[in-house]
Amino acid sequence: MKNLFLKSSIVLVVILASCGGGGDMGIVGELVGASPRPGWSHLFPYGMVYIAPGVLHIGQNDQDVNHTFIQRNKAISIQGFYMDDTEITNNEYRQFVYWVRDSIAHKLIGDDHLLIDDITGAETINWFMPIEYGNPEVQDILEEMYFAEGDRFWGRKEFDKSKFVYHYEWVDWKAAANRAKNASMSRSEFVRKGDIGVYPDTLCWVRDFTYSYNEPMTRKYFWHPAFDMYPVVGVNWLQCTAFGIWRTNLFNAYRRRMGEAAGEDFRLPTESEWEYASRGGRKNSPYPWGGPYIRNTKGCILANFKPGRGNYPEDGGMYTVRADSYWPNDYGLYNMGGNVAEWTSTAFYESGYSFVHDLNPDLRRDADENDPEALKRKVTRGGSWKDIGYFLQNGTRTYEFQDTGKSFVGFRNVMTFMGRSLGDS
Question: How many angstroms separate the CA atoms of 316 and 175, rounded?
Answer without folding.
Answer: 48
